[in-house]
Every structure is written in structure tokens, then in C-alpha cells.
Amino acid sequence: MDVPEIVEEVIEVLLSGLKDTDTVVRWSAAKGIGRVTSRLTSGLSEEVLSSVLELFAPGEGDGSWHGGCLALAELARRGLLLPSSLPKVVPVVIKALHYDVRRGPHSVGSHVRDAAAYVCWAFGRAYHHTDMRNVLEQLSPHLLSVACYDREVNCRRAAAAAFQENVGRQGNYPHGIDIVNTADYFSLSSRTNSYIHVATCIAQYERYLHPFVDELLHSKISHWDRSLRELATEALAALVRYDAAYFADFVLEKLIPFTLSSDLCTRHGATLAAGELVLALHQCGYDLPNDKQKQVSGIVPAIEKARLYRGKGGEIMRAAVSRFIECISFSLVPLPEKVKRSLIDSLNENLRHPNSQIQTAAVKALKHFVQAYLVATDNKGAVSNNITLKYLQLLNDSNVAVRRGSAMALGVLPYEMLANQWKDVILKLCSSCAIEDNPEDRDAEARVNSVKGLVSVCETLAQERESSDIHSVEDNMSLFHLMKNEVMVSLFKALEDYSIDNRGDVGSWVREAAMEGLERCTYILCKRDSMSSTGKADILESMSKQPNNNVVEENQMCLFFDVNLATNLVGGISKQAVEKMDKLREVAAKVLQRILYHKEIFVPFIPYREKIEEIVPNETDLKWGVPTFSYPRFVQVLQFSCYSRPVLSGLVISIGGLQDSLRKASLSAFLEYLNVEQDVNEELKLCKLSMDILWILQQYKRCDRVIIPTLKCRQLRFFSAKGYSWIWRRILWLSVPVFWILWRLN
């Protein structure tokens, strides 16, 4: 029977519609192809199939591939795709499952991969298991590769659904149920979980390891998305456990030439992957042959020789090289002396870089590199001393990036490199924590790094002194005396860093680092006190209950952590807990909470400890960043004379600030505190409050940041606030000397 000419014209229009730019048109055309083909003879159906397969030519666009997949799915779903045609259809579907075409800064093809998974799903519903046995063996590795490693979550889920449909309908498939339970809808929702956990679990089964490695090696480590490349290198390393020899002989051999590729994405991914593989092989207990060790040790010098740090992508390569050095340092790959010098020079260059991510990567690498290659072979300590001295000198460099990197580097140096110059290191870092005298040299990030580096150095020294008996008593005492008299003082001064620039309150970064540093140094001193004294428990208990106990004060001289440090610590942190930045209030409250309730180290001599513990309970998930929650609690600290001044100096900034919601919350909490306590020692309390205000104005004279909010407090309609007017009239009357001081200052 001849087909009417109009039918051929309709089919031609439908085939053209499969390449349309609009998805709705392609979908409708695919439906039409299926309906029309169902009315044709088998011979004509094969002709339609051949026309559909022509849409998958390499020169066709993504729309054509997408429309072709939809048409194949419709033909299969309706039973129009004969089993005899599957051998020529399956290779096309496999290509569509991996379709990803780079276009500018991104790629296209997710809709094609999703449609290809739909084709596989339709196969499972349309054919008998005897017809699909060989087809499923071909498709399953590719479906699971997409399910685990695709960038888009909808493609991962679509491929997993197609695999599940085939396993469920085609009967007994090896490990099918286990894989379906592992790669489910929810486990694939996270890309990281899919790459690291789901794929690693599936790779243990036969026939999936090598396809997974090929997918990562040829598609993912050279992907245009940097985060995906980095994740792919971790995923590749996670598979090493199943066949270490294969990765050492084949995969690493392929990766090393790619580190010098002209394509940035390829060389970046290959450099990261090579480092991760070397580390994974070391962790598996596999020793690289000498020729492979030589090739690995030459990767960084080859990159530098090719000048791949310059031009576009240089920053990305610097970070990748730092991570590579970190990995080979972990793995203890033997390096010639010339290569060692080259690598330390590379790390020093990266430490000078203004990009913080590059500096962080370099610091991580430096920490393990010096321990693996310099300390172990430096018998006389000459190299170690030179490196430490170099970083000390760079703390005075005019380049802020150099100062940042040097401070971070000093913080990760091992004890062996600090042993001969530890006093100079601590004192230099203490001075670097302070705000620079020259306004042009001021840099908040450098001070943050100095604070963090200072605390890390103290921890390194203290840990070594505790675990070793070779140091004299005087040497040990001098370290902890220096921590008490210099380090803690510098950190308390860093709590007063309120510097600002065009980015805002950059001093808040320093204050946050200082609070965390004070916490860590407090633990060091308290731990030392607990180790060096006996019978102190009764004293500590009496001190926490009676902060002015004379017996305790006589014992302060022999302690590294005394009542003055405890008072300044709680007062300084409480001040940050009542200031205007939500994040800082939350950090301060959590730091104070950890200090009060530390499970291993008891922090003694905290005045009014029991009352403070009532204000800051040992509970999780408290919303310290919410003003209406935190202010009513911390404003109660004002009742303790040893903490009232620092807390009030922070509170007036919130009360007199510009943010309306914060001002209302802080003022309401303060007035509520006054109202609750107004009948108890009223005159004494008001006099104390006025003297605290006077102290604030004296302490922060010529400091507009504090003076203006303090004076603004009287403009917030205190006099019209019902029930509080008499309080503020008396406070202001008692604070008359304040205005005399201000007049003298002017």
C-alpha cells in the first residue's frame, strides 16, 4: 500500500520540529513521530528510525540531539523500535548520556543527558528481559556513571531512575537491588555525597570501577566548573582502594603529561588529581616505583619551567601546585635537594600572593613540607633557623600580602624550627597584632593572621614542653610567663580593634580571632597550672564563690592564670556579646559558654561564676545572634562591679547606634534591668552607674565611636519613657562632672 504524499510531508515537518529551538515544539514533534509511525508498516518505520538517527550527527546542535532522544523514547515506549534495531540505537544513546558541549564559560547538554536517561527508562518498559540482557550490560555502567558523576541533580536522578526501572523489570541483574538501594533519590541530591560516597560504594562491584575511572579521567577532571574538577579529583582518589596497581601504572601515567596541557582546566585538574592519587596510594600502603617517584617529583619544576603561573589561570595553578606539594609531603615522596629548594621557593612565592585562597593553600602545604623534608634532614638546624628568621623579617615588609603570608607561615612551623627563636617569634607576632602606626600600612587581614599565628605558635611550644622532659624548668616557666604577660595582653588589646575602612568594620575580624585566641591560650595556662600545682581544688572553689578572698590573692603570684586574667577575659568577651554585630555577639557567647563548661580543663578564678553560668547556660541551639534573646541575658552582667564597665561600654554603642531594631532591643533590655533592680540599693546603684558612664567618657575621650553613642543615650526619649524618667534624671545629675571634663577636653 502506497503512503499518501501528505503523510510524507507531515513526517518531514515533524522531523524538522525535532530540531526546533523551543523545547515544547520538540516534545510535541516527538509525540507526533510516535503516533504517525505506529500507523506505518515495519519497513517505513525503519526509514523513520534512520531519519531520527541522522539527528545525532556530530555537526548537529544540542536541540537536535534532545529532539532525537525524545523521538527514540516515544518509539521505544510504543513498541515501534524493534529489538533488531537496538544494536545501532544503543551506541547513540550512550553518546547522548555523556553529551556535554563547552560553550563559552559554561556548557550545554544537561537536557540531552536527561532525555537520554528517559530513552533508557523506556527501554526497560518496552522489551523482554531476554532482549535487554546484552543491552543492559552495555548501558548500566554509563547510566551509573551519569547517576554518580553528572553535574546536574536532575540528570543524576533521571539516570538512577532509568537504572532502577531496568533492574526492576528485567529480572535478576547482578547487584542490582544493592545498587538501587545505594543510589536512591535522596542520596543523589548532594553532589558531594554522590561523588564521594555513592560512587565509591558502587565501584566495589564488578564492571563499574574502570568505567567510573574513565568518566572521571576523561570528562570530569577537565570540566569547566572548577569546583567539579576539585571534587572529581577527590572522587578519583577514593577509588584507589579497589585497584592500587591500576591507578599507579595506568591512571597516574596518563595524568602526568596532562599537567602541562595548554588547556587550563585540563592541567589544573590533572595537577590536583596527580597529588590526590599519590596521597591515596600512600594511604593504601602502595609504594610507587622509582621511575614513578621521579616523574612525580618533576611535576612542579616542569610547571614552573613552562611558566604556567603567568597569564590567565595562573592563580588557579598556584593553588593546585600548593595542594600537590601538600599531598607529596604527606606521602613522603623522595625528592632531590634541588627539587626541595624549588618547592620551598614556590611556596614562598605563593605566600606573598594577595589572593587569600592561594596563601591558605600554601600555608597548608608548608606545614607538612617543612616537617617531611626540612626538619627530618636538618641535623644542625641551619636551614630551619634561616627560614624562621626570614619569616620574622618579612613581618615588617611594606607589602601587606607579604605580612599576611609570613604571619600565617610562622603559625604552622613545627617546634624544631621555633626552638631557638621562640621568644623573638612570640614578641614579633605580639607587636604585629597591634594597629600599625602608619595609616598607609594598616591591614586588618595581616593583624588577623598575626593573632591566629601567635596562638598557634603558643600551642606548638606548650604542647612540646608538656610532652618533653629535656627543657629546663626556667625555660618552661619563661614561656608561660611570656604568654601571661605578653600574649594575653596583646590579645586583650586586639579586642579593642575597631578599625574601619571602605569595607566596613574590618576590626571585627581581629576581635573575633582575638576571642578565639584568648580561649585557646586560657586553656594552655590553666592546663599548665593544673599540672604544676597540687591541692589547688579548694582554692579554686573558694575563689569562684568569693572573688575577693585574700587567701586566694596571696596565691596568685605563683599562678599563670590568675583572677585578673579571668576578670579581663569574661569582661572583654561579655563586652563583645552586647555590641551591635550579630555574628560577633554569637561568637562571643559561644566562646564564653565553652570556657565555662569545658569538659577537660577547668578555668578557675572567674568572679561570680555561678551567676554567670545562670546567664549563659550550658545549652545548645541558643539564638545568641538574636538581639531580643542575647541582650536581656548579658545586660544582667552589669550587676557585677568587676564586669560592669566593659559591658556598659559595649552596651551604649548598641543603645546609641543607628540601627533601629538593635537600639530598641538593647534599650528595652537595659531599662528592664533597671526596673527590676530599682528597689535594691537604689542610691548606690545609680551612683555606680553614673560613675561607670563617667569612666567610659574618660577612657574613650576623643573617640567618637564611643562618645557620640554614649551622649546619644539621653536623646532616645529617656525622659518621656514611662516609669524611667526619674532614673535618667538622677543618673544625669550624678554625671555632672562628665560635662566639665568634656569642656576641659575642648
Automatic annotation (TrEMBL):
Please give the organism. Answer: Gossypium mustelinum
Which GO terms of type biological process are on file? Answer: microtubule cytoskeleton organization; post-chaperonin tubulin folding pathway; tubulin complex assembly
InterPro entries per the UniProt record, alphabetical: ARM-like, ARM-type_fold, ARM_TBCD_2nd, TBCD, TBCD_C
| Superkingdom of origin | Eukaryota
UniProt keywords, alphabetically? Chaperone, Membrane, Transmembrane, Transmembrane helix
Pfam families listed in its UniProt record: ARM_TBCD_2nd, TFCD_C
Q: Which GO terms describe its molecular function?
A: beta-tubulin binding; GTPase activator activity
Name this protein carries in UniProt: Uncharacterized protein
- Keyword Repeat among record annotations: no
| Residues of the signal peptide | none
Residue span(s) of domain Tubulin-folding cofactor D ARM repeats? 1-177
Domain Tubulin-folding cofactor D C-terminal: start-end pairs: 568-713
Q: Where do transmembrane segments lie in this chain?
A: 726-743
